[in-house]
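User: Hi! I'm working on a homework problem where we have to compare a predicted structure to a textbook description. Could you give me the structure for the chain below?
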Amino acid sequence: MYTYTVFDVETPNRYNDRISAIGITVVKEGEIADSFFSLVDPQTRFDLFNTRLTGISSKTVEGAPNFAQLWERIEPLMSSGILVAHNAVFDLGVLKKCLHSYGIEWKKSVKYICTVRAGRKFLPGISHKLNDMCAYYGISLDHHKADSDSSACAQILLRYFQSGEDVDSFIRTYKLAE
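Assistant: Happy to help. Predicted structure tokens:
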């Protein structure tokens, strides 16, 4: 069994090229082994829509590290396993743009699993929005809070394992650099 690094990001505006918060939940040997959360100073403006959705504003992130400063701390976690996210292409896209924007070289590509894509195969006919999946499984969720979203996604992943689903058949590759 692999180590799975489940993550979720919140963004400050519609451009989805910066992070205002990140939650990481590490799953090892079929259980949650570690977690991390941080607000992030995106060094850009916030849209009112995003602030209302996430509760994060420029005032909230005062004194928080920017992405480059935070990357030193989270890179070992992000490198520790297969990345997992709910609607993974969105979170990976934001991560890719942040890495590029800050001139951080990491990997050319990463292995990942999308819990939405897997869920559509494992549980056809139901909504696969994070809040709906959490309601289906009875998982507590404070939606659009990166720590709660990453924890909920990790718990969904664990439910897939417990159901005997072949989650690893959903491992894909995402290009971070050309």
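For your comparison, note the following. The chain has one domain: 4-173. The longest strand covers residues 31-39. Good luck with the assignment!
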